C-alpha cells in the first residue's frame, strides 16, 4: 500500500532554514506527481510546491524564491528546502502523491488533486 512519511520539521527562528523529507513506498514513484502542502490552525490546506514525474516544479507565489522542491526518483524521496522562513510559514506540512493519472508537467498544486497523504510534520517559525 502507499505510504508517505514526512520528517525534518521543527522550530526555527525567522530567517532560518529547514529541510523537509518525504519517504515514499508502495507505488511506482517515478510515474506520478507529488507535492508539499501546509495547513495552519483554522485555515484551509494550501499548496506549497509540486513536482511532476520528471522533477519539474511549480510553486505557490509565497514559496517562490524561498522554497525548493526536489524529487529524487532514485531514492523515492521528495524534499522541500525552506529558506528565509517567516512566522507565517508556521503550519503542519504534508507531502502527497497523485496516482489518479500519470504525472506529466505541469503538476497540479491544489490539495484536491492528490489522493494519498502523509501524516504531516510540524514547522514552527518564531519571530
Helix content: under 10%
Instruction: Measure the end-to-end span.
Output: 40 Å
Structural class: mainly beta
Question: Nearest-angstrom radius of gyration?
Answer: 13 Å
Strand content: over 45%
Shape: globular
Largest sheet: 7 strands, mixed
Helix and strand element order: EEEEEEEEEEE
Give the helix tally.
0
Mean pLDDT: 97
Secondary structure tally: strands: 11
Low-confidence runs? none
Characterize the structure shown:
The chain is mainly beta and 127 residues long. The chain is 0% helix and 48% strand. The chain contains no helices and 11 strands. The strands form 2 sheets. Strands 2, 4, 5, 6, 9, 10 and 11 form a 7-stranded mixed beta sheet that branches. Strands 1-3-8-7 form a 4-stranded antiparallel beta sheet, with no helix packed on it. It starts with a strand and ends with a strand. The mean pLDDT is 97.
Quick take:
Helices cover 0% and strands 48% of the residues. It is built from no helices and eleven strands.
